[in-house]
Amino acid sequence: MTPAPEPHGPLDWSPALEARELLGEPVAAALERNAELADEVHVARIDPSLADTEAFCAAYSWPLERSANCVVVKGRRGEEIRTAACIVLSTDRADLNKRVRKLLDVRKLSFMPHEEAVASTRMEHGGIGPLGLPGGWPVYVDEAVGQSPWVVVGSGIRGSKLALPGGLMRELPGVEVLDIAL
Asked: Which residues form the YbaK/aminoacyl-tRNA synthetase-associated domain (predicted)?
């Protein structure tokens, strides 16, 4: 088992599956299916009103460059709707209009509306992360995320955060690690 990330602020990290109540259902299911992965993922309880990245980092003294955002996007190719998740460091933005649009091979790409993203992922808005995403979705992870020693991401709920080694992102189902940040 990988030791918990170095402490920042008042966060109390536990192995993720030892605090299952702090995980969204799809996140818990993904970790339960992969014990090796689960051994490297930690979870900490947070105030749900501080789930948004900037508020979380400020309140818990967590560096922005060690936090990642997961954005869900969709586009259309003919009658087919194509969906993907993009993971970038909180200090960066995903190049949706050029890089991700071309990867999905769609003419126009947009953020998935909040309600639709919540329904599609079965995760809470503000808690959507890379673990437990629907099968078949491409997950584009920026190179900088994969090189981070630790990165904090959504746990499926607003009341907690996951911490995992950035390199572990390369092992998640459906992941493609590329340069997608602006």
From this structure: 48-166
Which alpha helices (H) appear in 42-154, and where do they start and end? Answer: 53-59, 101-104, 114-121, 143-147
Assess if residue 130 is contained within a domain: yes
List of residues 6+ apart from 110 with CB closer than 8 A? 73, 74, 75
pLDDT of residue 2: 65
Whichever domain contains 57, its CATH number is 3.90.960.10
Query: How many Å is the Cα radius of gyration of the chain?
Result: 15
Total domain count, the chain: 1
* Cα dihedral across residues 12, 18, 24, 30: positive or negative: positive
In which element (H, E) is residue 38 found?
Answer: helix 35-38
Residue 116 pLDDT exceeds 60: yes
In 10 A of CB 40, how many CB atoms?
18
For residue 162, which of 58, 66, 35 has the smallest C-alpha distance? 66
Domain holding 126, by residue range, is 14-178
Q: How far apart are CA 124 and CA 167, in angstroms?
A: 25
Q: Is residue 8 part of a domain?
A: no
